[in-house]
């Protein structure tokens, strides 16, 4: 088994800046210390295509989503309790219940009764 490549400081900085600030790769590359101009951009784009850098990016994005999710839950909870519009309160409350596993039962029911016969006369 081949050991995983180690992330360089520049690669880690590139990913961290892209995830934290939402910058496109070209701008994040400059902040991360890559050379300005085409050579720096090419190096940054090549780094972003490698498996170990992509794995680190997914890890960082999952961390950020986890942090953002707690803020989002608090926002939805606040809206369900204190929004001026009753419609907004209702929708936020339904969303919280749905995510907690209390989704209403889907009551679509299909019944088929009787026999079906198909006759093909090729004569």
Number of beta strands: 0
Q: Biggest sheet, open or closed, and with what strands and sense?
A: none
The span between the termini is 68 Å
Name the structural class. Answer: mainly alpha
**Helix-strand pattern:** HHHHH
Report strand %.
Answer: under 5%
Alpha carbon gyration radius: 26 Å
* Helix count, DSSP H or I runs of 4 or more residues: 5
The proportion of residues forming helix, as a percent range, comes to: 55-70%
Q: How many structural domains in the coordinates?
A: 1
**Based on the structure, what is the oligomeric state of the protein chains?**
single chain
Described by the principal axes of the CA atoms, the overall outline is flat
Instruction: Show unreliable segments.
Output: none
Residue-averaged pLDDT, rounded? 88
Fold and architecture overview:
The protein is built from five helices and no strands. It is mainly α. It has one domain (9-99). 10% of the residues are buried.
Key traits:
5 helices; 123 residues; mainly alpha
How would you sum up this structure in a few lines?
With 123 residues, the protein is an all-alpha fold. The protein has five helices and no strands. The protein has helices at residues 9-21, 25-32, 38-49, 51-82, 86-99.
Strand and helix layout:
Blueprint: H1 9-21, H2 25-32, H3 38-49, H4 51-82, H5 86-99
């Amino acid at each position: 088994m081949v050991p995983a490549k180690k992330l360089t400081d520049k690669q880690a900085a590139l990913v961290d800046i892209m995830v934290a600030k939402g910058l496109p790769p070209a701008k994040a590359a400059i902040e991360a210390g890559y050379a300005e101009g085409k050579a720096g951009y090419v190096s940054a784009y090549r780094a972003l295509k490698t498996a170990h850098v992509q794995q680190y990016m997914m890890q960082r994005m999952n961390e950020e989503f986890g942090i953002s999710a707690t803020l989002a839950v608090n926002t939805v909870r606040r809206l369900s309790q204190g929004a001026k519009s009753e419609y907004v309160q209702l929708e936020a409350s339904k969303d919280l219940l749905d995510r907690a596993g209390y989704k209403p039962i889907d009551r679509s029911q299909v019944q088929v009764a009787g026999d079906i016969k198909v006759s093909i006369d090729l004569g």
